[in-house]
Amino acid sequence: MIRIENLKKAFGKVTVLDGIDLSIEPGEVVSILGSSGSGKSTLIRCINGLERIDAGRITVDDFDVSNPKELAEARKRSGTVFQLFNLYPHLSALRNVTLAPVEVLKRNAAEAEKEGRALLESVGLGDRADAYPAQLSGGQRQRVGICRALAMKPRYLLLDEVTSALDPEMTAEVLEILADLTGRGTTMIFVTHEVAFARSISDRIVFLDQGRLLVDLPCETFFAEDGGMANARVAQFLSKMRKD
Amino acid sequence: MRAGRSIALTTARDAVETEIGFTRTVAGLNLIVSDLAPHIALLAQGALLTVEVCVLALAGAVVVGAAIAMMRASGSRLLRGIATVYVDIFRNIPFLVQLFFFYYGLPELGIYVDAFATGVLALSIAGGAFASDVIRSGILAIDPGIVEAAQVYGLSRRTTFLKIVMPIALRLSVRPLGSVLINLILTSSILSTITLNELTGSAKIVASQTFRPFEVYAVLLLAYASLTYLLSIAIARFHRRLNRGVLEAV
Predict the structure, then answer these.
(1) A25 φ, ψ (degrees, to nearest 5)
(2) What domains does chain A contain, in order, with CATH numbers?
(3) What is the pLDDT of residues B222-248, one digit of tens each?
(4) What does the DSSP 8-state code read for residue A230?
(5) Are A206 and A188 in contact (CB under 8 A)?
(6) Looking at the domain that runs over B40-242, which CATH code has it been given?
(7) Measured between alpha carbons, how far is B188 from B182 in angstroms, rounded to an integer?
(8) Is B110 helix (H, G, I), strand (E, B) or coil?
(9) ipTM of the complex
(10) Is residue A196 within 8 angstroms of chain B, CB to CB?
(11) Based on CB atoms within 10 Å of each CB, which residue in A164, B16, B29, B202 is the most buried?
């Protein structure tokens, strides 16, 4: 379980997260919605320990991410997929996927490679395993990014606006894979602007506004008129997204 | 003779002077072919020595440069301080002075190193200071998101540095490192001042034996130009090979 208690984070004088409480059970798919600057990405970056938190507590399966000794364990349990892919440019798609399993989990290289190939195969990149990131399209790169996360067999998948840098066609490629993953019971925390997709895959929707957690509701309730939509800020956000 | 005739409109004196110059050049060419022949072996030996020194110093400079760049990027304040002082010292003292200090100064303290080793070491140390700056800017140019990915996946600082940061930084540095290395070849001519008869040193000997400095140094000029030209071709190829498919546009 990922548990976030009274999380606070500021960059200089700008408060980005202002007392967030949230827990995510294994097997859940939770989408985090909110306007740009509402703190969604920062929340993800606090969970995986890329940002130091100012106050509060985050635990991943009871490992405290603020404790440097426990952070390593916490990180082994979660895999992050980034908005801008952040692939290692000097390594082939396959090596991008196998590097951490070999270096961190001390997996046998040949085995890791076999699994890596299978993962790439499963996202339709079996024939691109030896290509470098720069030789792949955006959608292909993000699929490699997802494989890189999955290769660590994480209990939690943190997805930080993974389709924001992609055109609609490539977005569809990537979303298809994510939909497939939810079908297999992967826990996902999905920061996104793809409201319709979030609605189709999520168990729960969390809505952030100016660093505060405004609404945390089961997916269906969130989109119901008397549920999340009853909140003026949520209604405004959703109507704006639909227009776009 | 034809040269004299083609300048018929100039004054007689000018024509005569032109002819003398021309004849001298022709004689020079003759000298290169016939009179220089006995000395070719010495020059070739010098060239070989230059190549030897440079190959070792190129490797040394890259190793020193990478090590210093790593120190400058390290978390330890002490290592960063040492590295900064190192770069500041060796970039701001003329190479000739460094060389004299090593070769003529250190023996006073009982430290004797032969001319060849001194040359290689001095070039590696000085070249390393410049190379470290290039590699450091390569490190700074790496997209921080790539390093964050490595962190998130649990790679240790060491592994991240050795398997992610350095390989990318070196790839980004190949071309600018090339100019540092070419400079190293040019600087190696200064080693002739510490009794090392590399290319320039042996050319000096041949020039004094033949009394034909113009011709000898013309050959020397060509030799250095071809050495550096070959290196720059090699660097461009290496850059392309190393970065094939890795950089967006190579």
Answers:
(1) -85, 150
(2) 2-243 (3.40.50.300)
(3) 999 999 999 999 999 999 888 877 765
(4) G
(5) no
(6) 1.10.3720.10
(7) 10
(8) coil
(9) 0.90
(10) no
(11) B202
